[in-house]
Amino acid sequence: MSTTAETATGVPTLSEKQQRILGYLRDNADEQTYFKSRLIAEDLDMSAKEVGTNMKAIEQGEFDLSVEKWGYSSSTTWMVTT
């Protein structure tokens, strides 16, 4: 099951939750490199599972930042670079 839709040109579009997460990462990537799913979830009023599921679309997409799954201690950690 795909977590993103595609436009008529085949370019993936992000869901509302994915857009919120991407906006959060963009707003904070200059001050921080590593993000835990559970902390993103707390700030965006989501569950850590929702964040993890939706981060895959951001990780696989082509955006102005790079997202890589980094670690799993106490919550999945994502490395985000601009």
TrEMBL record:
Pfam families, per the entry: DUF7123 (PF23438)
Occurrences of domain DUF7123 (ranges): 10-81
Highest taxon in the source lineage: Archaea
InterPro entries assigned to the protein according to its UniProt record, in alphabetical order: DUF7123
The name this protein goes by in its record: DUF7123 domain-containing protein
Originating organism: Halovenus aranensis
Lineage, uppermost ranks: Archaea, Methanobacteriati, Methanobacteriota, Stenosarchaea group, Halobacteria
